[in-house]
């Protein structure tokens, strides 16, 4: 029996009379049913023609006021679609709807203006399906999201893209903590942002958006001709907006395209008397595109995804090559794949990328789970692409286009930032290759790196300059000391950063202010975190979700604030860290030889896990037969290209199969220069981390294999305030040579990875292998060449984050793939042991700061015995490799504590302790010569201040117990070096 019911509670139609004919289509694709409904509305008569793939018995046809959202669990419920209003004057009976058979039903005397933008529901005793009613072709969709003020929620606008004069469907979902049932609403173009609307009166006074100069005024009512109303006079044309329940409205004068469109205008809601008001910008959805790119183990190709809005299907284009009958399943997995670090690293395993993305908890082991390519998209896991489109079994390649109704790029269940895994065609369905789903639009990425007692990271990614869009969030946390896992920790964003001068103890979190909640607890992220013990393989150590209200740009950005994790008592701090911008990476190599000149840029956008590197270049003089490669070592100090080492090959590739990027040595980039096309993309060219190309050499090689031009690969500095910091350890004694360290200090205080160039040898000239080398906590105090207790003054390894509290746990977990588990000073485990006498080696350390509260400058580098032995063979202070120093002379003390003297000098000139480093140059005749270095962003100013300070003898007592020697004392037979220092600083300041 066909049952048709009328409920006016949530329908808002304003009858303006109907003439002519409107035709619409609804596409069904759910619950194993596909098909169409063609709806024709002529003079209040609605004709519905149905043709669906499954049979229905005793079916009720319903029209609901809200369009359908495929990305919901209960798609056809009244909660999602609103209450059905449909009540024809002559009910019809449909005993049954037969599969693939056209059924036509007519309903007359409906007295409605349109059904566009609403939804049709077929409801029977055993199945319910629904679909949006709309015109053929694409639609424009816009959103005004209210997150600030006394009203929260959403207002959506949707209109056929073909005509700005067509009907626009408006769906509202607003709510308030106050007892408000309706509000005035209007669109204004008088101001460009909501910041200037600070009161209800200000909202009331705003001019209504009126691009057509309509008369407006009292003639603008819901019953009037809409042309008498200003475009922005929504209350006049539609009535006040409902608060507390979803509603649908139809409007014939609310364009989303054309010169008078409402995009980027402000939607304002307010009380006529009372204090409630709110404002939101109307943002028209841009087409959202994402890409997966494969160049792994012989498999190449792409999977591209495109979705117009949250209410449109996703178009998927797949082009895979190199499958060679070896693959079967392919799926979106929950977590991204990481950057490759070691040759045998598992990049796609269950502990790395997790399982299929399955937000609706479909049971793939259920007997009713459909076979591949045998049902509608909603019956499968969201990420089960091979079941939705068909498997890759027995295919050499695949080139196909698919429309997916269950693969969102918008909203809480977006696939962006996750990974796509291709599986082998074996009984176990083992994982073969994987790559990340990368957004094809500019993004901003932020990071919160925890180091004690919680270690790990929380990454955030959002469309650039779009603070109201979704933010993808990836969490990976552990404890650094092997303690048992704990669950249910509250985590919050706090208003202030962690004070940099404080220790890493939980007490440092007291500087973070209060809970940052500009949205008044409307945040939708998970409220608690689980932190499993280190060594626990439980995948709860990772978590990925998409947050709908978490801005990374604009006035309410979380970047620059702090993230805190609470103890289980929910009142005290467990751990905290700052939220920092994660910069796009940019390196360059400038060639300037006689015959070959030009520049090569390497860039990589920020994001989750493995990213593609783009190569841009402009080189003159590349002759036929020349190739461009990256070698392991930089040019020598004399800029000689004679000793660059081998082609950079951290993954031990022995042959180049011309298929995928990972089959080439990292440094073998010649193929990107042979076609003279720029830019080019490479999925196997790391710009950061242990396998980075930073600091190595880019060289041009002729057909005989000889290097004809070379240059060092450098960080590209975007700001004049960015600084290149260089430090050095100069070894003398049984171990001699240098360790050079390079790092970029950015204007915002963040730092790049540190490049380390080691060139050490045995005094005897012998070659010895596998020497551990470490940064130790204290500088050398004269014992670098003694026979007994050599270098003991340097103390233990530098370990500010207390990773060595559990030695068994440390031995198991510190590795190149788990660097946050390592001591800052454990270079041997982080980057590798060194062979004394083996020549220059270049390493990249992601956590060896040359500036800031945990700087290694002023400490010591120690080299241990061969074959990972414990005895200390040699040591040297880590000092700035800089001309920015002041030389002073002091009376030789019984014992010189360089770090304490540095603290004393820092206090005297108002510097941070870490910004002053003291080097003991020599002691002769009770006189000790010292160099005082100044580092950090204020180095020049501090040097100038100290030069003035030391020039005044009255200040000498402030350096007690150390006794500076006056300039005019008998010790000075030559002009004082102090004066030279002052002149140097003054000249530098004048030049700057």
TrEMBL record:
Pfam families noted in UniProt: Sod_Cu (PF00080)
Ranges of residues in domain Superoxide dismutase copper/zinc binding: 299-426, 735-867
Gene Ontology molecular function terms on file: metal ion binding
Keyword Signal tagged: yes
GO biological process, one term: superoxide metabolic process
Keywords: Signal
Protein name as annotated: Uncharacterized protein LOC106052162 isoform X1
Keyword Magnesium: no
Highest taxon of the lineage: Eukaryota
Matches recorded under PROSITE patterns: PROKAR_LIPOPROTEIN
Organism: Biomphalaria glabrata (Bloodfluke planorb)
Gene3D superfamilies associated with the record: Superoxide dismutase, copper/zinc binding domain
Signal sequence annotation: 1-20
């Amino acid at each position: 029996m066909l049952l048709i019911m009328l409920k006016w509670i949530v329908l808002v139609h304003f009858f303006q009379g109907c003439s002519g004919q409107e035709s619409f289509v609804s596409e069904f694709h759910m619950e194993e049913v596909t098909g169409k409904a063609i709806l024709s509305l002529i003079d209040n008569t609605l004709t519905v023609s149905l043709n669906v793939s499954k049979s229905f018995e005793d079916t009720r046809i319903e029209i609901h006021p809200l369009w359908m959202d495929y990305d919901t669990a209960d798609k056809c419920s009244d909660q999602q679609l609103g209450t059905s209003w449909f009540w024809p004057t002559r009910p019809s009976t449909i005993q049954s709807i037969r599969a693939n058979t056209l059924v036509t039903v007519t309903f007359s005397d409906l007295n409605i203006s349109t059904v566009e933008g609403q939804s049709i529901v077929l409801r029977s005793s055993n199945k319910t399906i629904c679909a949006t009613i709309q015109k053929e072709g694409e639609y424009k969709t816009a959103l005004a999201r209210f997150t600030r003020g006394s009203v929260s929620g959403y207002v959506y606008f949707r209109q056929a893209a073909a005509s700005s004069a067509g009907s626009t469907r408006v769906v509202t979902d607003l709510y308030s903590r106050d007892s408000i049932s309706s509000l005035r609403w209007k669109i204004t173009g008088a101001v460009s942002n909501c910041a200037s609307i600070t009161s209800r009166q200000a909202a009331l006074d705003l001019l209504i958006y009126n691009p057509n100069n309509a008369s407006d005024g009292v003639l603008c009512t819901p019953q009037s001709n809409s042309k008498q109303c200003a475009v922005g006079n929504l209350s006049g044309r539609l009535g006040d907006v409902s608060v507390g329940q979803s509603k649908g409205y139809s409007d014939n004068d609310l364009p989303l395209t054309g010169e008078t469109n409402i995009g980027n205008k402000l939607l304002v809601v307010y009380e006529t008397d009372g204090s409630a008001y709110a404002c939101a910008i109307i943002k028209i959805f841009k087409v959202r595109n994402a890409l997966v790119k494969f160049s792994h183990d012989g498999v190449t190709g792409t999977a591209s995804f495109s979705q117009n809005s949250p209410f449109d299907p996703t178009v998927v284009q797949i082009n895979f090559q190199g499958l060679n009958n070896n693959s079967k399943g392919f799926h979106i997995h929950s977590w991204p794949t990481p950057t490759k670090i070691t040759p045998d690293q598992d990049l796609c395993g269950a502990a790395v990328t997790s399982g299929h993305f399955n937000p609706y908890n479909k049971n793939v082991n259920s007997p009713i789970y459909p076979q591949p390519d045998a049902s509608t998209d909603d019956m499968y896991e969201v990420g089960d692409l091979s079941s939705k489109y068909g498997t890759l079994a027995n295919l050499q390649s695949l080139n196909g286009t698919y429309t997916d109704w269950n693969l969102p790029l918008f909203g809480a269940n977006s696939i962006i930032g996750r990974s796509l895994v291709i599986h082998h065609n074996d009984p176990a369905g083992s994982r073969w290759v994987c790559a990340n789903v990368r957004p094809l639009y500019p993004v901003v990425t932020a990071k919160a790196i925890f180091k004690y007692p919680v270690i790990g990271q929380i990454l955030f990614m959002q469309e650039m300059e779009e603070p109201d869009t979704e933010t993808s969030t990836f969490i990976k946390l552990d404890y650094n000391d092997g303690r048992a896992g704990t669950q249910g920790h509250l985590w919050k964003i706090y208003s202030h950063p962690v004070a940099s001068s404080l220790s890493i103890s939980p007490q440092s979190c007291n500087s973070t202010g209060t809970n940052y909640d500009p949205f008044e607890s409307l945040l939708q992220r998970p409220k608690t975190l689980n932190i499993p013990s280190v060594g626990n393989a439980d995948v709860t150590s990772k978590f990925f979700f998409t947050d709908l209200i978490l801005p990374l740009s604009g006035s309410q950005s979380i970047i620059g604030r702090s993230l805190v994790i609470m103890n289980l008592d929910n009142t005290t701090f467990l751990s905290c860290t700052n939220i920092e911008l994660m910069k796009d990476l940019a390196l360059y190599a400038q060639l300037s030889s006689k015959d070959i000149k030009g520049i090569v840029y390497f860039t990589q956008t920020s994001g989750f896990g493995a990213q593609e590197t783009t190569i841009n270049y402009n080189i003159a003089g590349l002759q036929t037969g020349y190739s461009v490669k990256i070698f392991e070592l930089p040019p020598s100090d004399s800029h000689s290209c004679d000793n660059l080492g081998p082609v950079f090959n951290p993954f031990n590739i022995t042959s180049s199969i011309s298929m995928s990027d990972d089959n080439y040595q990292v440094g073998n980039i010649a193929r990107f220069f042979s076609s003279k096309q720029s830019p080019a993309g490479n999925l196997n060219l790391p710009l950061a981390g242990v396998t980075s190309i930073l600091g190595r050499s880019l060289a041009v090689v002729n057909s005989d294999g000889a290097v004809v031009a070379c240059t060092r690969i450098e960080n590209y500095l975007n700001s004049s305030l960015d600084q290149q910091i260089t430090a050095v350890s100069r070894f003398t004694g049984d171990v001699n040579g240098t360790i050079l360290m390079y790092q970029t200090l950015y204007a915002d205080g963040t730092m790049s990875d540190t490049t380390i160039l080691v060139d050490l040898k045995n005094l005897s000239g012998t070659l010895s292998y596998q020497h551990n080398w470490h940064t130790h906590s204290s500088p050398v105090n004269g014992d670098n060449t003694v026979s007994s207790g050599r270098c003991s003054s340097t103390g233990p390894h530098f370990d500010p984050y207390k990773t060595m509290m559990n030695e068994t746990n440390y031995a198991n977990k510190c590795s190149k793939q788990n660097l946050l588990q390592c001591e800052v000073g454990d270079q041997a485990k982080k980057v590798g042991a060194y062979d004394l006498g083996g020549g220059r080696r270049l390493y990249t350390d992601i956590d060896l700061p040359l500036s800031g509260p945990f700087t290694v400058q002023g400490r010591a580098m120690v080299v241990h015995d061969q074959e990972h032995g414990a005895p200390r063979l040699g040591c040297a202070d880590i000092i700035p490799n800089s001309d920015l120093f002041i030389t002073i002379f002091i009376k030789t003390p019984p014992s010189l504590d360089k770090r304490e003297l540095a603290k004393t000098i820092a206090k005297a000139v108002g510097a941070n302790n870490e910004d002053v480093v003291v080097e003991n140059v020599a002691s002769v005749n009770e006189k000790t010569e010292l160099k005082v270095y100044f580092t950090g962003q204020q180095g020049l100013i501090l040097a100038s201040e100290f030069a003035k300070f030391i020039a005044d003898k009255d200040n000498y007592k402030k350096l007690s117990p150390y006794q500076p020697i006056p300039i005019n004392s008998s010790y000075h037979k030559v002009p004082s070096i102090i004066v030279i220092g002052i002149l140097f600083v003054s000249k530098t300041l004048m030049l700057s």
